[in-house]
Amino acid sequence: MSAITFKTIGIGVTFSPNLEANINEAARLALCFGSKLVLIHVGEASEKKSSSFLKFLSPFESKGLEFELFFKSGDPVTVILGSTEEKKVDLLIIGALKKENFLKYYLGSIARKITRQAKCSVLLLINPSIERIPCKHIVVNGLKDPKTKETVTTAFLVGHKLGADKITVVEEIDQEEVSVNVDDDKSLRKSTIIKERLRLREEARVKVVLDTIPANYTKDMTIKSQPIFGKRGYSIGHYAQVARADLLVMNAPSKMTFWDRLFPHDIEHILTELPTDVLIVQ
Amino acid sequence: MRTKETSFVGFIKNLPKNMFSGLVVSLIALPLGLGLAMASEAPPIAGVITAIVGGIIVSILGGSHVTISGPGNGLVGVVLVAITTLGLTATYAAIICSGVILVILGFLRLGKLADYFPSSAIQGMLAAIGLIILGKQFHIMLGNKIVRESGIDYLLEIPNTLIAVFNYQDKGLIYAAVAGILSLAIMVFYSKIRNKYLQLIPAPMWIVIVSVGFSYYYEFILKTTNPISDAYMIPGIPNIQEIITDIPTPNFDMVGTLSFWSSVVALTLIASIESLLSIKAVDKLDVLKRRSNVNKDIKALGLATVVSGFLGGLNVVTVIARSSVNVNNGGSNRSSNLFHALFLVVFIVLFSTELTRIPLTALMAILVYTGYKLASPDVVRRIFTIGKEQLIIFFATLFVTLKVGLISGIIAGLIATFIIHIVVTKSLSLFIKNILKPNVLMFKEENGNYFISVKHFCSFLNFNILKSKLEAIPEKSDVILDFSLCGFVDHSVMENVHDYQELFHKKGGNIGVIGLDILGTKSEHPFALRRLLPLQNIIPNNKTKRQKNLELVAGDFELKFDPLKRKSSLFLENFIYFKTKKVEHVFNQLSAKNNPCRLFDITYSEGEFIAKEVVRSTMLYIKTSSSVPAFTLDKEGLLERLYALAGYRDIAIKNHADFSNRFYLRGENARAIKTLFTDELVLFFESNAYYHIESSKDGLLVFSKERIASIKEIKALLDFGVRLNAIINKV
């Protein structure tokens, strides 16, 4: 299976203190992947606005960046989602907010809505910066899911392009799967054996996925497979934080209903507390 | 893994030992059972029925190994309230209902209920129960029966009773009060006297023996009636036929009332908390380091409670003091619990009339001591050292429990703890936002270590998540527990983590806690940081005379003197002597780098709760090469011959009949021991003073008495050690 290629990268821009950092990050990525950048602004087009966007883009233009400005007024969520479809955006970049005084990041309500409904891949940036921060360690989920293969391949592509030197494939094993409750020494032994078996099974499965990755992506890269025991969707974020990953790559959720938001699981956990930059592959 | 057959052989082999420890436990269970039942105003025999039913059912169906079940002291307060509000027969119905709930909790795997209570609140609740028991029974102990409204009123009456005692005119009352005071003295001083013959019979049984003997003395020798007032003797103990015919019928008429169900809830809550705390504490004492199946045990306790309720008994719980006595007397599996029950049956069948010779005041002295132990100033002092805020929680729980009731008390404790946590962290949202999050991540690193990371906060509210992860790790592993992503860690968690650290350490694993020091400043995390402060207190410069002399001795033997209390007692861990004992610290050490001998004073404790004995002793440790087989050498006495009957074998050394007669030698590897005991070594032992000598993997432990040695004795001990070491090295 081939990786998703990002032909067009979109970013929603507003006039905030983060504007320059956001544009810089997006432009750098676009150059990296050789894709076209679309700046989406919710609001009326005006000369003044265009010129200020262009001011930030000009250093990249000289390096060969192809870009487009898109203005449209209306409800931010509808506008941004609509324009991503209209412009055939493959990857939408969203900046996260930082809590005051805390090293914690979260998504604003608009950004959350967009992430949930987007039909393309989404990259959530926790710490956009003007200068480039190298991406060294990528954590990708290895769930048993049809989308996983694509996600892992994409993670390797991104890692390859960004020059990452380590990729960890994380398999989350739910407590229910262990199926033995630890009560005493005997059940502890049993559950340890079952866990070991699950670990081997998961590792074998991931290995099959890894074997299909094109060799030039995996070159010069340390690949690690790590089974973790915890709540699906939540623990991988926790792991990414513990492992000091620079990017977490995840499958897009299959479907999202009202209940999923009420009882958060999978991606919702990640949205409430971003451990690091997150790429959700659609 | 052991096969079924060998474990069966082991079971049979250990049977005599378990029978013996079952007997000793029954000696303490009989007076305690009578006393606990009377303190809760149930018929005295109810306590014994509880112990018998509990012992039989829990030993067959339970999931723990060396615990003893029976009537619990924590329940006295609750049963008392239930009997006064509902009446006796309706209380039996409430007990049956609480048993059913316990079984259900066991099936729902909610045995961990006690984890959700902050430990300072539990301490406060136990102290309140202690004060309730102490306050009420103190008056009866001194022959002054009074009836008051609440637990606090009883406590306030204590000075009046003390004055009243000195104004007694009635001779019967004076004798009753004297019996009470003497019994209390036996309870208090028993643990101070280290005599193996005296210690064979537990203190409560001594009280029974002395008071029954006293009664017979008056009857047969002085030919008069017992001078103790009849009102202060145990009321009629039914004989076995009467017990069977007089089984009360539980009265379920009040099932619809609120007071019935509040009693049921209180009974269930206290029964499960007391049992869980006891099981946890007993597991720490288990020589074989087994893990108890808590939920299975809860189910068995619940079923036993149901049966006990139908037969006219009280709630069956796991009891700490009796369990620790069981461990100390060599109980190694559940059969000792069964034997304890069977011996109780024998006692009731044979001696039920003799039991009426026990004065009530003597029995209540046992309970007063129990109550004092639950609420002793030591508890308050310990909580104070953890933190002032813990004291607030403790006293909030204590006072509400005394004034209103147990359930309100524990709820007050929960609320107080939570408010204090909010005040300390200055953040409510930290708890509200994150309480439902699965905040614990566990994974196995490539080198086989387990890594656990905890996020947000970790307190009594969500400790169960961390606990379930820790439970699922084999105790032989190395674990790294990282709190660096955590904003707050409370005292309950630190205490529990510390327990797990001990458990892992015992089984050869290790839990390293990291990230607490980088949490922030002291003010942000007072619980965590305060808890981590080193425990040793620095002894000021003014040394005692003994310490100065020790310094001189150290000079003579070219050793260095270190007076400070040290927690590190790892080198003692492999000795059989310390398998059932808890080392608190070693101090006044004489040691040197290149010298294998190391002399020290040591503080350790044996048993738990009212059976707890703190011992200070002087010992000598000699480091040897690992080729010395494990053995224990003692002076042979009556007790050792008794032990031999219970299955401990004495190893005989050829051609040294005198040595074998005078010394009691034990060990697993008899052949290796026989080769070690050469003529020279045997002669050395024969010609020197008796010491208790024990060898483990790589060291010898030598001491004479279970007390601090004098300077003269220390010199003799050191000299003995040096010569012994020389001979052993030759072999």
Structure at a glance:
The complex is a heterodimer of chains A (282) and B (731). Chain A is an alpha/beta fold. In chain A, 43% of the residues lie in helices and 22% in strands.
Describe the 3D structure.
The complex is a heterodimer of chains A (282) and B (731). With 282 residues, chain A is an alpha/beta fold. Chain A folds into two domains: 133 residues, HUPs (Rossmann fold, 3-Layer(aba) Sandwich), CATH 3.40.50.620; 112 residues, Rossmann fold. Helices cover 43% and strands 22% of the residues of chain A. Chain A is built from eleven helices and twelve strands. In chain A, the strands form two sheets. A ten-stranded mixed β-sheet of chain A has the order 3-2-1-4-7-12-11-8-9-10, sandwiched between helices. In chain A, a hairpin with a 6-residue loop joins strand 5 and strand 6. Chain A starts with 7 loop residues before the first strand and ends with a strand. By secondary structure, chain B is an alpha+beta fold. Chain B folds into four domains: 383 residues, no CATH class; 42 residues; 98 residues, Transcription Regulator spoIIAA; 186 residues, no CATH class. Chain B is 56% helix and 12% strand. Chain B has 28 helices and 14 strands. In chain B, the strands form three sheets. Chain B has an eight-stranded antiparallel β-sheet. A four-stranded mixed β-sheet of chain B has the order 3-4-5-6. In chain B, strand 4, helix 20 and strand 5 form a beta-alpha-beta unit. The radius of gyration of chain B is 27 Å and the shape is globular. Chains A and B meet through helix 7, strand 10 and helix 9 of A and helix 12, strand 3, strand 4 and helix 20 of B.
